[in-house]
Amino acid sequence: GYKEEYCALLRRKINMKYTFWGNSGTGKETAVALAARGARVIIACRDHEKAARAVREIKLRSRSFNVFHMELDLASLHSVREFCKKFLQQEKSLHILVNNAGMPGVLDWTNDGFSMCFGVNHLGHFLLTNLLLPRLKECAPSRVITLTCSCYKYQKLDFQDLNYNLLPFFTYCRSKLANIYFSQELARITEGKGVTSYAVHPGFVQSRWTCHYSFLFRILMQVVMWMFSVPCEIGAQTVVYCAVSNEAAKHSGGYFADCQPAALRPFARDAGVAKKLWEASERLVKLA
Ligand SMILES: NC(=O)c1ccc[n+]([C@@H]2O[C@H](COP(=O)([O-])OP(=O)(O)OC[C@H]3O[C@@H](n4cnc5c(N)ncnc54)[C@H](OP(=O)(O)O)[C@@H]3O)[C@@H](O)[C@H]2O)c1
């Protein structure tokens, strides 16, 4: 049954006009897949040169001219607000929002003084989604897909120290757990309003995430990835599935891996924690 639905999905054209995404790895592959299905794709990137190159490649591979880029740096809340202002002025529709961008575990700080992982992976997307939510509601049915990672299970959130920035891998795990709570709470508050929300684990993907680390670590990870990881096209499949499948639409708030709903550890399904994180995030990004 799954194989048949998957084959049907590969052929399905979508009439959703607007969507946006990133300039490398899983994000680029998702953009290719959605553009090839007829979507107008806007990739939101912090580096103009890279974005322009990615747009050229996405256009060529998807055989679509309907691909654009806009400037967005998720490490700056000011940039997120500017991006949303411009987007809402120039685009009348938004049907699929993919919160793909992600920093792996690095001990750095954003422009606003948040730890890089928490600031980019969670707070940047939190503010972005909230500012675009009115447009998503206007364009319902619409979907928000947030990339997370199965490593969420190795950490819990500490509300006394949301800005935790001590062990790189654990900062990443916490930000990916925050993505899951965010996606669940978003599903709860938009229930009955035509907006659905999904958290997606793309698998262990051969993307460019190692570029943030030392040469030696990169060599080591190339070997590990060669043995255990999947190409970015495969990593993008679950995202595309959540973007276009009728079956996925029945599981708003769900966690998906390998193009199907997957089980979460009980602590990651705690609606109380999801609500608490939402409220704390509203305060941190100064959302009125
Ligand atoms: N790779 C894996 O095995 C794996 C596993 C589980 C989950 N994930 C998740 O999948 C998502 C995609 O990652 P990937 O594997 O495709 O890695 P990737 O190739 O490194 O892509 C990450 C993207 O995020 C963008 N980005 C980073 N910081 C940004 C910022 N401040 N503002 C705007 N864009 C920013 C990067 O842009 P630049 O090119 O400008 O840096 C890049 O386009 C991430 O959320 C990641 O956590 C990945």
Descriptive overview:
The chain has helices spanning 2-11, 25-36, 48-62, 77-90, 116-138, 168-189, 215-228, 232-235, 237-244, 271-284; strands at residues 18-21, 40-45, 67-71, 96-99, 142-147, 195-201, 254-257, 260-261. With 288 residues, it is an alpha/beta fold. The protein has a single domain, classed as Rossmann fold (3-Layer(aba) Sandwich), CATH 3.40.50. The model is unreliable at 15-19 (pLDDT under 50). The structure holds NADP nicotinamide-adenine-dinucleotide phosphate. NADP nicotinamide-adenine-dinucleotide phosphate (NAP) is lined by residues 22-27, 45-47, 50, 72-75, 100-103, 120, 147, 149, 201-202, 204-205, 207-209. One of its GO terms (molecular function) is oxidoreductase activity.
Q: Features of this protein?
A:
8-stranded mixed beta sheet, 288 residues, NAD(P)-bd_dom_sf, SDR_fam, 10 helices, Rossmann fold, oxidoreductase activity, oxidoreductase, binds NADP nicotinamide-adenine-dinucleotide phosphate, globular, Si:dkey-174n20.1, alpha/beta
Strand content: 5-15%
User: Mean pLDDT score, rounded?
Assistant: 92
Query: How is the biggest beta sheet arranged?
Result: 8 strands, mixed
Oligomeric status: single chain
Give the overall shape.
Answer: globular
CATH class category name: Alpha Beta
Task: Report strand order across the widest sheet.
Answer: 3-2-1-4-5-6-7-8
- Tell me the helix content: 40-55%
Termini, distance in Å? 46 Å
In this entry the ligands are: NADP nicotinamide-adenine-dinucleotide phosphate
Number of helices: 10
* Number of domains as seen in the coordinates: 1
Spell out the CATH superfamily.
NAD(P)-binding Rossmann-like Domain
Tally of DSSP β-strands: 8
Strand/helix succession: HEHEHEHEHEHEHHHEEH
Q: Which topology does CATH recognise?
A: Rossmann fold
Query: Which radius of gyration do the C-alpha atoms yield?
Result: 18 Å
pLDDT < 50 stretches: 15-19
